Amino acid sequence: MGVLKKFEQRLEGLVNGTFAKVFKSEVQPVEIAGALQRECDNNATIWNRDRTVVPNDFIVELSAPDFERLSPYSGQLGDELAGMVRDYAKQQRYTFMGPIKVTLEKADDLDTGLYRVRSRTLASSSNQQAPERAPAGGAPQRPGGYGGPQGAAPPMPSAPPPGGRPGGYGYPQPTQPAAQRPPSGPVGASAPGSRTRYWIEINGTRHQISRATLVLGRSTEADVRIDDPGVSRRHCEIRTGTPSTIQDLGSTNGIVVDGQHTTRATLRDGSRIVVGSTTIIYRQAEG
């Protein structure tokens, strides 16, 4: 059973189902949990071959109506979300610089049903010399991962110190080895004079991947729309590179890659991805 499914079942069992009733609205706890997973993946920093550090301090910003509704449960909900992050980190072999904390905050610039996640790495007292990571500001999210209008960004320092994350607060952070950094520049660039092409095949139709990321889902906002009732609005995301990967975006039914139910996997040429009742073939080739 996946980490998100275990989290959802645990949450629904609390306080005689009180949480389950409260969340019968726009923002669902499993969607927030999925956003925290993505925050870990997107901000993972490789320190060495055996250690990948991810944020441990998370702030979930909610609209005023959502915050007023959920604030009475913020303590228990924060603990449950922190436990989910801990379970996911164990599954992915991530490590933390300090204790995990998830806090709910009100954001007046967000409409009902929208939320935003910020994160940073805070060192514990025994790790005060360790570099910290800048908070990452995220776009507002709708349940299912749908991005709403961008809210006001946090104040930026006039001259961020070297190593600060673009768009973040400018905290210094550990330098990531160049070989491990996500690819930049044109998609598919592998070596001088060569180019890797990426595409997917759905029901015999080829969809070229011309950007670094490709979002699949039932929404018209997705890069490739899949008309399948078992597919969420923003179901999963393919990232091309060396290697290419696929990441579940907090979908309801999850993803299956080469026969394995997972939230994140490495892709190879010919990988079979199943979302809902739809099979997707991932392809890549030099030339």
From TrEMBL:
InterPro entries: Cell_Proc_Reg/RNA_Proc, FHA_dom, FhaA_N, FhaA_N_sf, SMAD_FHA_dom_sf
Keywords: Phosphoprotein
Composition-biased stretches (Low complexity): 128-143, 171-192
Gene3D superfamilies in the cross-refs: 2.60.200.20, FhaA, phosphopeptide-binding domain (DUF3662)
Record-linked SMART domains: FHA
Pfam hit, one: FhaA_N
PROSITE patterns named in the record: FHA_DOMAIN (PS50006)
Identification of the protein by name: FHA domain-containing protein
Organism listed in the record: Streptomyces fuscichromogenes
